[in-house]
């Protein structure tokens, strides 16, 4: 079987930056903790823990050492609390996420009622929401137009989770237009996310089966899988090559491979190697 890799796949700049910052933090033997997983990739998080970067669910679990703000960002209060405890901070927030946070805060400061298009409860979205609300603004989170409340106070400003699809944003904007609302839109979707989604869709049309690599807790990887599955029904989501079942590819001549933005190159290589050995 022939194995084709998507033109754009795997770890993005923000993820690689966060990893580099985490490893640099402990290169001199320092103790470090991330608040929640640094990135949504269980295998990478496990490797970091073995190297000395622990995972804390909150600052209550950290009494000393370096606090690493993960790539998804945090609510502003977390940084203030860490500083109050005298804990040194390394901010590994993805620059694109930081831009979305700033956009949410800016809209709120200008008097807009903010709508964040994304997944409620996701750490990145919670951070965006908190940045909009920190100065007394309002922010609601919707995954799509069906979640828009019946009454929406104007003026409306929109920000988007960086790993969302442009289609999700457009659907919400269109629904608001249908109500006679003209929102101020800050398209904060990461370009790398869009690249990976377009490349995955392109690849899915060329192959008999497709493997999407990445953490199951990764929203951008899950979205890649959904995109591929809709085009190529024989698409499969795996975290490691051990999960691959040869039966998935019976009768296949060409297999595609793509990976989420939190998937390092070595994980992609190991899956490709496994597929090429079938």
From TrEMBL:
Name of the protein described by the UniProt record: 4-hydroxy-3-methylbut-2-enyl diphosphate reductase
Active-site residues per Swiss-Prot or TrEMBL entry: 124 (proton donor)
Gene this chain is encoded by: ispH
Catalytic activity: isopentenyl diphosphate + 2 oxidized [2Fe-2S]-[ferredoxin] + H2O = (2E)-4-hydroxy-3-methylbut-2-enyl diphosphate + 2 reduced [2Fe-2S]-[ferredoxin] + 2 H(+); dimethylallyl diphosphate + 2 oxidized [2Fe-2S]-[ferredoxin] + H2O = (2E)-4-hydroxy-3-methylbut-2-enyl diphosphate + 2 reduced [2Fe-2S]-[ferredoxin] + 2 H(+)
Pfam family, one: LYTB
InterPro entries in the record: LytB/IspH
Names of required cofactors: [4Fe-4S] cluster
Family classification: Belongs to the IspH family.
GO MF term (any one): 4-hydroxy-3-methylbut-2-enyl diphosphate reductase activity
Protein EC: 1.17.7.4
Cofactor note: Binds 1 [4Fe-4S] cluster per subunit.
Source organism of the structure: Raoultibacter massiliensis
């Amino acid at each position: 079987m022939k194995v084709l890799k998507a033109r754009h796949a795997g770890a993005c700049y923000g993820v690689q930056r966060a990893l580099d910052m985490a490893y640099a933090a402990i290169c001199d033997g320092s103790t470090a903790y991330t608040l929640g997983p640094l990135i949504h990739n269980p295998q990478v998080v496990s490797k970091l823990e073995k190297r000395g970067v622990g995972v804390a669910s909150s600052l209550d679990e950290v009494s000393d050492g370096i606090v690493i703000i993960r790539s998804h960002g945090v609510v502003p209060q977390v940084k203030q609390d860490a500083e109050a405890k005298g804990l040194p901070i390394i901010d590994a927030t993805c620059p694109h996420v930081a831009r979305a946070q700033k956009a949410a805060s800016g809209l709120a400061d200008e008097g807009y009622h903010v709508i964040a298009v994304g997944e409620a409860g996701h750490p990145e979205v919670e951070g965006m929401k908190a940045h909009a609300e920190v100065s007394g603004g309002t922010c609601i989170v919707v995954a799509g137009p069906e979640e828009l409340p019946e009454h929406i106070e104007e003026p409306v400003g929109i920000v988007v989770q960086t790993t969302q699809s442009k289609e999700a944003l457009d659907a919400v904007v269109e629904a608001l237009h249908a109500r006679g609302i003209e929102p101020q839109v800050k398209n904060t979707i990461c370009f790398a996310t869009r690249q990976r989604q377009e490349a995955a869709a392109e690849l899915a049309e060329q192959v008999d089966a497709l493997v999407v690599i990445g953490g199951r807790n990764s929203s951008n990887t899950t979205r890649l899988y959904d995109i591929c599955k809709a085009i190529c029904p024989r698409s499969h989501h795996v975290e490691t090559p051990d999960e691959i079942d040869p039966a998935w590819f019976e009768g296949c001549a060409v297999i595609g491979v793509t990976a989420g933005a939190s998937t390092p190159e070595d994980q992609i290589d190991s899956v490709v190697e496994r597929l090429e050995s079938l």
